[in-house]
Specification:
Layout lengths: L3 E6 L5 H13 L3 E6 L3 H4 L2 H8 L3 E2 L11 H8 L2 E7 L1 H9 L5 H8 L4 E5 L3 H5 L1 H12 L3 E2 L3 E4 L5 E5 L3 H12 L8 E6 L4 E4 L2 E3 L6 H12 L3 E6 L10 E5 L3 H12 L4 E4 L6 E3 L18 E3 L3 H8 L5 E8 L3 H11 L4 E6 L11 E2 L1 E5 L2 E4 L3 E2 H17 L1
Parallel strand pairs: 1-2, 1-4, 2-3, 4-5, 5-6, 9-12, 9-14, 12-13, 14-17, 17-18
Antiparallel strand pairs: 7-8, 10-11, 15-16, 18-20, 19-22, 20-21
Bound molecules: cytidine-5'-triphosphate.
Protein name: Coenzyme A biosynthesis bifunctional protein CoaBC
EC number: 4.1.1.36, 6.3.2.5
Pfam families: DFP, Flavoprotein
């Protein structure tokens, strides 16, 4: 999805971070129109924003070279406004409805959501006048991205630092998504489990966790309250998601059942070990001359147990990793585990090997099966939610 984003830049030292924001949003296919205040242009040359976004950078309210009423054009075109950095002066003017330059005028004229990322000295930020102005804006529906604490360019350490560009970009992306999962509690599991044999060895599998994390991120962007229970992975917690890390299948089971009852949707994307060592050796196992036999015992099938206990309104979604007879095996899992949906993927397909950033799945339910295209896991996660929310509406 490509959106028209108006990036408002006001005169703070953190304006340099907005260059990265403009560049990243452009790379994500969005049209970034920059509006700079007069003092922002003291810090950054408008040409730099133009070079990164390939779109006009405006700061003058009036023009004699175009017949378009500039502030109305930008206000109507915008899907979203991000003001970063926002100075105390800008915040005060916005809160009071003063329109004395292009940026303050455009934000009065728009109906698009407006996000404001304040950045200033810690004492300025904590000043009751600034706090009051921010509260006014928040009450009016503006979204304030709270500054981070840390070293400030003025020499102080405290709250007032503009968040990293990556976080600002994530906040924008989150805001752009439709909120069709609002008020839903979603429990998602992801990653492999790890079953220890002794203090140095364990049994695990190739799951990277990427699909489950992408689902968690997509659900959070769409307004859900998301709990992610993850086995060991290298991945960072998705934005706005409550993450608990576990190791073993038994720990995953315990964590899942603590949350399962109140969840509206449960998605078991984790590759849970089916077997664990019958006995854990507290001491490192020493090698002998012959072969080693390891006795393994079954773990609980969490999805199947959820299927037995689930209430009528809860949606239960499982995955099926298959190397052969994809549809038959996935259909059997759907029935056996009493899931509402099984998302099946063919692990013999070389394009979607374990750890890949892409995936291709078929969604099965009692109604039949639908094959989704090969997509980046992030996009696929949204397609999966599109499909399921559509199907549930019918
Ligand atoms: N699953 C689970 N608990 C287990 C094993 C699997 O909850 N102990 C869940 C997975 O999270 C997934 C679904 O069951 O949603 C199917 O997992 P998969 O590994 O494809 O199938 P298995 O049931 O383990 O069957 P098999 O290994 O025979 O293919």
């Amino acid at each position: 999805m490509s959106a028209n984003i108006v990036l408002g830049v006001t005169g703070g030292i953190a304006a340099y971070k907005s260059l990265q924001v403009a560049s990243s949003l452009t790379k994500l296919n969005h049209n970034v129109y920059t509006i700079m205040t007069e003092s922002a242009a003291e810090f950054i040359n408008p040409i730099t924003f133009h070079s990164l976004t390939h779109l006009p950078v405006e700061s003058e309210l009036f023009s004699t070279t175009t017949s378009e009423v500039k502030h109305i054009g930008l206000a109507d075109k915008a899907d979203l406004f991000l003001i970063a950095p926002a100075t105390a002066n800008f915040i005060a003017k916005a809160a009071a409805g003063i329109a004395d330059d292009l940026l303050t005028t455009v934000i009065l004229a728009t109906e698009a959501p407006i996000m404001i990322a304040p950045s200033m000295n810690v004492h300025m930020f904590e000043n009751p006048v600034v706090q009051r102005n921010m509260k006014t804006l928040e009450d009016l529906g503006y979204k304030i991205i709270t500054p981070e604490a840390g070293y400030l360019a003025c020499g102080y350490t405290g709250k007032g630092r503009l968040p990293a560009p990556e976080r600002l970009v994530e906040e924008v992306r989150k805001e752009l998504f439709k909120k069709d999962l609002k008020n839903k509690k979603i429990l998602i599991t992801a990653g492999p489990t790890r079953e220890s044999i002794d203090p140095v060895r364990f049994l695990t599998n190739h799951s990277s966790g990427k699909m489950g994390y992408a689902l968690a991120q997509a659900a959070a962007y769409r307004g859900a309250e998301v709990k992610l229970i993850s086995g060991p992975t290298e991945l960072a917690a998705p934005l706005g998601v409550e993450l608990s890390r576990v190791e073993t299948a038994a720990e995953m089971k315990k964590a899942v059942f603590q949350e399962a009852e109140t969840a509206d949707i449960i998605i078991m994307a984790a590759a849970v070990a089916d077997y664990c060592p019958q006995e854990y050796s507290a001491q490192k196992l020493k090698k002998g001359n012959g072969n080693l036999k390891l006795e393994l015992e079954r773990t609980t099938d969490i999805l199947a147990e959820l299927g037995e206990k689930k209430n009528k309104s809860q949606l239960l979604i499982g995955f099926a990793a298959e190397s052969e007879n994809l549809l038959e095996n996935a259909q059997a899992k759907l029935r056996k585990k009493r899931a509402d949906y099984i998302i099946a993927n063919d692990i013999s397909n070389k394009n979607i090997a374990f750890g890949s950033d892409k995936n291709q799945v078929t969604i099965l339910s009692e109604e039949g099966s639908t094959k989704l295209p090969l997509l980046e896991k992030e996009k696929l996660a949204h397609k999966i939610f599109d499909y399921i929310t559509d199907a549930e509406r019918k």
